[in-house]
Amino acid sequence: MSQRLHRVRTESLRVALIATVIVAVVYLAISAVVVLLAERNLVGEIDTRLTNSLTRFVSEPNRLRPGGPVRDLPGAPRFGAPLLIWQVQPDGTVISPNTTATLPGNATGATGARTVSIGGTDVRVAGATVNGTHVVVGETMDNVAQSRSNVLRAEIIVAPILLAAVFLGALAIGRRVAFPIELARVRQMEFTADASHELRTPLSVIEAQTNLALRQEHDITWNRKAFERIDTESKRIRRLVEDLLWLARFDATHGSPHAEHVDVGAIASQAVERFAGVAEARQLSLRVRTAGEALVVHAPPEWLDRLLGVLLDNACKYSPQQGSVEVTVRAEAGRIRLSVEDTGPGIPVAERPRIFDRFHRATDSPGGAGLGLAIADAVVRATGGRWEIGDSAAGGAAMTVTWPRALSGPREPAIRPAETPAT
Fold this sequence. Notes:
five-stranded mixed sheet
């Protein structure tokens, strides 16, 4: 199983890397679009200002008064005032009232907005004719370059944070989703393998006995023993199949049958009566202790009966002859407490975390397929109960389940006495 789960980690890492690469490509595309849109908007604003300036010059030509050059102002763009003005005379002479920058020849006849390079700096220019003089206005694109730089810097800072978050998120989600699926698949395969193994043994015995019986004639005594072995193994198969069907139905319905208010004390008394013959055959002392009030929980009664059957079957099976099994049901701090204690060998502490695993057996004693406690655990979990595994006063096992109490009050007269010895 560890190798399969390691494969899940590897595949999750691979998926996280693929997701990160995809996000990186998408992020680069979006970043490029953002830069282009921001640059286009800023250039559009510059073009609008240049057009508005030319419109004012056309409508108010007196604004243009040729004079000496205007030196660069502190904090202003590189060539002086934000609006750069050049007047191109009919003879080709260029006069600039507010900048020392030289207008390049390819821009002297500019009309529509365009970008030119002046002294290594990009300048957006546009022109129009005012009173027979061609006027060219311009604005440096330093703010566009600065804004583009700021956007790129922000995108570069965000990129590793975003990609790291995507990678870690995809890795965590991948493992969180894949682990339960792979674990369920592995458990299903192990379950199938274990079930096949458990069925193979009794089937092999039955096949061997029938082959021997068919090969030659045998006396009545031999035939009787052969049929007894076949009967024993057939019953073992039937019990195993019933347990497998119960677990399959439980898994299919997700543990949601019709529940009702059930008196755990009454269920325990009935189960003890049912196992009285088993206890007598093994010379066991079997008794039940319940309180004089209704000990009610909300659960399917047939499930609680199955739970008691599993616990009592194990207790009677592993208790030595002339031992004892005691069932106790009582109320405790708003919960109903059911305990089954025996005088058997107990459950080693190291085995307790695994006793509810399907097909796991904590003892090498013959009998059973390791499904009883798995069924019991399914019932307890589905009914909102909690397990307490410990040792009995006699040194055996003490299996305890507690549930939230549903109702309280005196027990109805029809309920059996509080203590019912079964021997």
